[in-house]
Structures are given as C-alpha cells and as structure tokens.
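re: ur question from earlier - yeah i can do the single chain one, its not a big deal. heres the input i used so u can compare w yours
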Amino acid sequence: MKLCAHLLWASAMLLSPAVQAAVLAIDYGAEFTKLSLVKPGVPFDVVLDRDSKRKISSVVGWKRDDRVFGSEGKMSVKADFQATRFPDTHFPYIKPLLASSSEPSLPLYPSPPTLVNDTLIFPHVSAPSHLSPAPSSPQEVWSPTALLAHQLAYFRGLASSLAGEVVKDVIVTAPAWWTQSQRRAYRDALELQGLTCMGMIGEGTAVGLNYAMTRSFPDYNATTGEGEREFHIIYDSGALSTTATVLAFYQTSVLPTPKSKTPINTTHIEVLATGWEQIGGVQLDLILQDMLVTDFAKKSGSDVSGDKKAMAKLAREANRVKHILSANQESNVAIESLFNDVDYKSRISRADLEAAFESSLTRFSSPITTALIKANLSIKDMTSVILFGGNTRVPLVQSSIRSVLGDKEDIIAQNVNSDEAAVLGAVFYGAGLSKQFKMKKLELHERSVYDFQAGVAGEVIFPAGTLLGERKTMVLPAVDQSVEVMQDGHPLFAIQFTDVAAALSNFSTPEPVINLTFRLDHRGHIAAANAVVVSNATASAESTGGMAGALKGLFGKKEKKEDGEATVEEGTEEDVDAKDVKKEVKKEKVAVKFREKALGLKAMTGEEKRVTMARLASIASFEAARTSREEARNMLEGYLYRLTGLLDPQTDNTALQEYSKPDEQDKLRVLKEETFEWLLENAEGADEKTLREKRTELEKLEAPIILRFQESRTRPKAVEDFQQAMFAARSFLVEAQSNVTIAKAAVAASTPESPAAPPKYTDEELTAVEVLMKELEEWMDEVMTQQVFLEEDKTATPVVMTKELDERGKKLQTTVLRLTAKKNPRAPKAKTASSSSSSTTSSSSTASTEAELPTGSAESDAPKHEEL
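and the output i got, formated as tokens:
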C-alpha cells in the first residue's frame, strides 16, 4: 500500500502544471528559424512547421486578409506564389532591422521601410479590414518589432500544439555582437505575445553547448591556472552575417563535502572573444541575381531591375543556382515568362560566381582573425574550427576559411548539425534553467563585446570582455544629478537623481556620497541595480574592485540581489556590541530613489505597445473565428455527405434504415437536401453560429434513430450485468443471514469467561438489502415483459434504457459492498477466575463491616473504600 501511495504521489507531481511547464527554444535567423521544445516526459527535438519542415522561413506575409507564414509566405523554390503574386505584403529579413536607426541598403524588401521619428516603419498596402485600431496611413503600419511578434505567434502556436498546452516560457539565441537596443527590441516582441524570456544565449555559445553535451574535457583550475583547456572556434555563417566565437572548454571536479568520495564534475564553456562581419549567403544571392539581370538584359534587351515580380523570380532562381553550384561546377538557369512573356535560359559556372565575389572574399575569413587577436591566441592553439550555418556549405566560403588556417586545414570540423546545433544547445540551456530536469552539470561564461561607459567623463565601468553577471559600483557626489550610460559610445539611458536631499535628511555620517551600482546581467543588459548614500570612506572601500560576485553559474544559480540595505563593514577600529552595530549600519547607508530615462535609439513606448498588442489581438481573434467557422463548415459538409451515404438504398451500412421509421427517413432526406442547397449558396458568407445550427437541426432528427441503434447494442450486456448483480446480492444475503443466525446462537450460549462475538450485520441492514432486491426484481420483471414484445421491432422506442439498468445495478452493488467492507466485531474481553473470586471476597468483607457498624454512628458518614 505504501508503494502504491508513493506511485500515486509521483504521478500527481508529474501531472502538476507547475512541474509540467514546457520550455520553447527559438533560434531566430534572418532567413530561417529553428524551434525546439522540452517538456517532462517528451524527448526534446526540433519542432516541425505545418508543412513538416524542420526549418521555418523567417517571414510573415498576407494574402489579402489572410496572414501566412513559413514556406507559404516565403520567396523560395517551392513556394514563390506569395512573394511573386503579392510582393507588397511580403516581409522577409526582419532580424537585421531590429532597433535599426537607418533604412536598409540591401534590396531585400519588396516594400522597404522608411524612417519615421527614428523608427523604421513598414507600409502595408490594403491592410486587413479587421485590423483594429486601423492604421491612419497605409505607409505607416508595422515596425520590425511588431513583424517579429507576428512570427513569434506562429512559433508559439506550433509549440503549443506539440506540447498540448499554451507555451509561455522561451529561451532565445542572439548574436553576441547585438547591442542592448537590439536585445531590448527582441524582448519587446516577446512581451507583445505574452512570452516570458527565461534567458538569452549567444548563438555561438549555444552551438558550443550542443557540442559539449556528449563530450568530456580536460581538468583546469581557473584560479591557479593549473591544467589545460581546449580551444575551439565556432564559425557561424548565415544569411546576412558571419561570426567567429573562440570558446574555451574545460572541466572542474569538486567534492561536495569533505567526507564525499565521488567528486562532482562540471563542464565549463567560456567565451574568450568574438569577431563578426555583416556578410552572408544573401550577398552571394544578390551577386548572382545581378549577374542574371545583366545576362537577361544582354539577351533580351530588357532591363527588369524595376519589376518587382521579375526580380522576385530572379532572386528565387539565384538562390537555387547557388545551392547547385555548391556541389557542381555549373548550373542551368531557366525561368518561364520572366518579363513580357519572354522566357529566360542561361548557364552559370562556379568560377563566374567566385570571380564576381573575389573582392569581398576576405570578409568571410576576417572574423576568425579578429576573434583570435582579441583572445590573444593563434590558430595553433585551436583544437578545431566547428562549422555552423547553411552558408558554410558553399565552397567559396570554405576556401576563405582555409586561407587563414595555413597548414592546419585538418582542424575544420563538421561534427555538429549545421542547421540545428544552436537551437538544441539553447533548449538544453533552457532545460537547466527550468529546474525540471536532471541535466549534465554545465556552466556558461559569456562576455560583453562592447565597452559600457557612465558619467560625464565616459568612465568605462564594464570593459569589453567583461563576464556577464558582474556588478560594479561608482562613487558620485551626493547631489541631484543625471548620469548617462553608454554602450561603445552610444547613449543607452540616463540615471536621474531628483530627491537626494530626502535621503540626506536621514543620514548622519559626514562626507556623504552616492554609491551607484550597475549590473550587467546574463542577457547582456546593463541596468542600475541600486543607489545608496554612504560615507566617503565606505564608498571608497566598496568601489575598489567592484562589488560582489563576478559570474554565477547559469544552471541552477541566480544573481544575488541587492535591496539597498546596508551591511556591516569589516575592519572597524573598535569593537561594539551587536545592537550598536545595527544602529550604526542604519545610519551609514540610506537608499536613494532614481529613475531611468531612455536615450539614443527610441524603444517602444507604452502607447505603441498598446496599439500593437491591440492589432495583434484583433488579428488573432479574426484567425480564431475564421478557423472555428471553417471547422463548423467542414463538419456540416462532412455530416451531409455521411447522411447521403447512410440513406442510399445501395449502402452497405444499413443501420440507419433498419432503426428508422419511413417518415423519419423522409424528413431526413428532405432536410438534408435543403441544407445542401443552402450550403452551396451560403458557404462563404454564413457565420459559425448558423453553420452549427444547421447541423443541430439534422442531428435532432437523427438522435432517436441513433438511440435505438445504440440501445440494441448495449442493452443485452447491461441486462446481463444487472442479473449478475442480483445474483451476487442474493448469495450475499443468504450467507449473511446464516452467519447472523450462527452468531446469535453463539452469543446466547456464551459465558463471561468465554464470550462470543456479536453478529457482523444487524437485522435492519439485511432487511434493507432484502427490500431493495425485491423492488428491483419487481421492476425488472415488469419492464422486461414489455421489452420482449418490442425486440422484433427495431424502430420502436425501448422501454428500458441501458443507463437506468446500470444505475439500479450500481445502487445494489454499492449497498452490498458497503456491508461486506464492514470489519468483523470482536468478542468482549473474557473474565478470569481469579478476578471473579477477588471480587466476591471484597464484596463479602464489605458487607460484614457494614453490619458491625451501628446505625447512625460517626463512621457511617466516612467515605467507603470503594468510593475512595
């Protein structure tokens, strides 16, 4: 029983919503997105889109009022309908435009965005009629953050369908070189969809984590420098950027307690440096597209660079040719009716592409050189160069990589999935953060790639290369002021102190200054953690070397929060008792209120978020209603076809005809035909309610027929179960009555020295069972007598229903089971011979004593021994 109880408890814990929360990892790329879901009991893997593809196109588009995603909205080989027929409502390559303050230079956007009040805004010609609030102008509708939010809604829908629940927690990858503004824009998009960002991990770091999941590394002590580390380069070349990340892998072994014999091994992944270039596969596509445009102009005399549909077809063909040239020396080009009904045919060689791209070839290798210089390492120190990203399959790119490796070309490794390694590493990271899984112990050490400055003089508080998770404190004069915070010289926000005098009114120590503490969190965001007024001596001591805690572990560890309360300083000149210390601490530190004001690139305001969320909600509501209406229409249409088949005289399934009366069949046929005619005329315009009502009308006519059919199938078994319950109750009653008779006889013949147990059942209990059985038997005889005459008529309404038989049988069964579950009564405790004789002797002596005492004597009022 204890084992069962533990199993039931464990099952309940597994079913708990808090424990079962799913985590979605999103590796959002400029051209493709990969998703992975982790949930207890479900092995994590890549989430497929609606077309069962593992890579999801990072695009959103509209076909009139319908929002489309993935390959349906992508300008691709197999699905160019959306991009070529509706180019103005096709929004690709949103990632590089997040938090951008300049209009894009690459010709990738059918409807390029324009800069409005320092924010890029995309037009939406013929915006959906259900969009609310409606845009004031079709030229200013969607920001890049809003378009990313559209895609996130699609991603969450895919994951929620797989998880069987609404997914709310996500872990996302981001380029290590993204600025704080870009990271903030990504988080704004998540917020617009109600998603919680559990963490943001660098793309190269995520690939390294995936690499480390199944491997072991040498021991290394980061404090003493003893041991060895493995150095690897994660080379990631995607659609629009190429990044090289130098990672150090090592292991630490620590005994959890002095008495432990088995050490705990922890794998560490440390980011040493990052180099990047804004170049990728798209630039190769554009070069090929230009080559095709020039070639077509030579052959046909027509310039198609101004025709959106023709350029979309050429872009699709350029992408196809690029993939062919990755494995072949030449590729044919063929596009039917490219422009003015003119077909285009040609041939492109790999040598032609390489020659056209020769001037930019070194940009693919420069990230490796830059990263090695920043890490103060060389190629000879590297164990491998791990390739990731679809563009690394291009021979031209691989040739550029080999050019900087010299005689170490053999360290190029393709030992991770070049498409999915990042998202699989991210989901592993998310699983560790969720605390729901027992994971391999891993710790990540990521670094900032930019300097963070603060103050008028631009003091560097977090230099480039600072481990994420650190805190630093700077000392300021105790006056109202504004402190500007910058990232690599670009303003982020200002810390404004406006009520320092209020804090000083509660401060008694001389030489007050403000200790302003900054936190660089694990997502790469810098923020003010707290500000306190302290004495100048205390401030100097605390600000030296920064404040507590460099990097905390990422799996299962959190940053230590500061709440502005003071702490006792060490090294005081004289000893004081604890009460005096407490009082002194309260006087030494006083919290100062401040607020942050955004500078530089403008983040989404509260009003912009409200409007965008309202528009997203209106689209989601429209799509939900449309899906529900289509479901109702399909169900009605399917129901009508099913009825047509069942009413067909030639059908093999004759159940409906056998159990229905002729007039019922006629009514069904008539209503079915009327509904068919109505549906043909109103299928597109009918609302969901009307569609469901039409089906309900048909179901009401069919319901009596279904009832007869179902009863004919289930009633025989119900009758058999009822009779078995009656037989079991009768057997119980006979045996119970016999046991009661025997028990009563035993009680009558018992003595105090040998008592007998009373009967287990009372006469009232057995009488109640007998009365109930008699009532049920009479009822059964009556209804079955009537039902027998109807067995030959399948169209007759049953007299007795399966449900009623089950209810009465269960009532009898429950009554009997309750009695059988009673515990057997115990016999009274037997009296021994010694206790009986002592009791007799005691009463005799008491009687003689009472006889000797004169009536009315003084001792007659005294308490007797028995009373005492």
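DSSP finds 21 helices and 28 strands in the chain. not sure if urs matches, ping me
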